[in-house]
Write a structure and sequence with these properties.
single chain; about 90 residues; mainly alpha; about 80% helix; elongated
């Protein structure tokens, strides 16, 4: 499951624009880690590990976070970089 979530995160990294703004392993690693946390949380909640819904929910959670981060990190990075350039350019 973690490997599948990592693959989904890798796909988001390569398909979405702005990948020059962050490292190649950031989005896939966060996607895999979040999917694992959701998986364990659902197991503790009583879901069966061999059921289909635990797979769907944990992988979709990882995919949604990967998509959200891949879209917001480049914008945030550009904004912060411009602010730092303005701050460093002042005499």
């Amino acid at each position: 499951m973690i490997l599948i979530a990592f693959g989904i995160g890798s796909l988001a990294y390569y398909v979405l624009p702005g990948r020059a703004q962050y490292g190649s392993m950031l989005i896939p690693s966060i996607s895999a880690a979040l999917s694992a946390v959701v998986w364990v949380g659902l197991l503790w909640a009583g879901w069966k590990f061999d059921g289909g819904w635990i797979w769907v929910v944990s992988l979709v959670a990882g995919a949604v976070v990967a998509l959200a981060l891949a879209l917001t990190i480049p914008r945030s990075r550009r904004t912060h970089d411009e602010a730092m350039l303005q701050r460093l350019s002042k005499p």
